[in-house]
Amino acid sequence: MASYTYPLTINSEEEEVVREAAKQVNLKLNMYRDNFPTLPLERVITMVAYDFSLKNL
């Protein structure tokens, strides 16, 4: 995610969900980067986290 690798230990039955979650984060990250190209990556990541938090309330 965000050009970083995060090694995880997960059960094989969780792999599909974990990969989909990473895909969704990257899609949202790319959307924000396209809309706000001058913002530093850490600000964009914060916006992505906030966006997902709002959707899970």
TrEMBL record:
Question: What Pfam families is this protein classified in?
Answer: ZapA
Q: What is this protein called?
A: Uncharacterized protein
> Origin organism of this chain?
termite gut metagenome
